[in-house]
Specification:
The chain has one domain: 2-enoyl-CoA Hydratase, Chain A, domain 1 (Alpha-Beta Complex), CATH 3.90.226.10. It contains 16 helices and seven strands. The strands form two sheets. A four-stranded parallel β-sheet has the order 1-2-4-7. A three-stranded mixed β-sheet has the order 3-5-6.
Length: about 350
Amino acid sequence: MFMGLLRCFTAYEKDDGVKLLIMKGKGRAFCAGGDVAAVARSIHKDGWKYGADFFRNEFLLNYIIATYTKPQVSLLTGNVMGGGAGVSLHGRFRVATDNTVFAMPETALGLFPDIGASYFLSRLPGFYGEYVALAGARLDGGEMLACGLATHFVQSNRLLLLEESLKKVDTSNTFAVCGIIDQFAQQPSLKESSSLNRLEIINKCFSKRTVEEIISALELEASNLADEWVATTIQSLKKASPTSLKISLRSIREGRTQTVGECLQREYRMVCHVMRGDFSRDFFEGCRAILIDKDRNPKWMPPRLEQVHDEAVEQYFSRIDDPQWEDLNLPARRSHGRNIESKL
């Protein structure tokens, strides 16, 4: 599918007859993510380089989408997770709906939010990106709009009408395309239980330097505040892979000052280290426990945060020591990533 999309995006950019691209899911969901269980199985069978090729093509596609010269409108129905976010959120227009569920749940799988997520999550308000990345938090359409991950919110029963209107467009002018989506768009109100109503706590806790300090700060909040949200967040962090949490936090922090291309190149190094499993094989254990056997009881190694030392984290950000390995080589492109604007 990635290869098919790469061919489409490459051909359509040169084709003057193509004015804009509409990306939508086939079926109930937009896309619940890449088939990481299949990747894990292929690595067992054919070695980690198979996985490296898979992610290389995926990240190249993410980069082309992020720097695309024509407007892409992504219609985000149902689940938009992991790789699904990669083929949509880097595009110009991201239309959330009343049934959208967004998440980057990778820390629970022994992976980290990849596909350039360290670029767009690090640009969310305050330290909200750290929260979404580490806790694998699920956001609804209203929250996506409010924090800037979505550019518009349209009720799902009006999406077909929106699509028909977009198909009549004979221009690549982003203001004209935006004007059409605006005619269908609404401003939903946030639910009382929304994590965005807890931004003060999120900023206080998730701004801490280390994962251990973030959890301690949340536990302090929990002792002073009877809020189910805090308890759920602590539980999510404690169930996640300790190695994943540490590399994810550093990834988001580095992403704040990097271009989308630099984020993808760094994430490619990280994902190659994850698949080689030199320090931790949590990715394979997470796939087993969550996706294959589904016992939802992963045995992480190392099992505790304090056992994941800074030197180990540092390794994930270094070049791979293999003469046949190359960094992610991205083509020269005209623009450098979208601005994720917060609508808060």
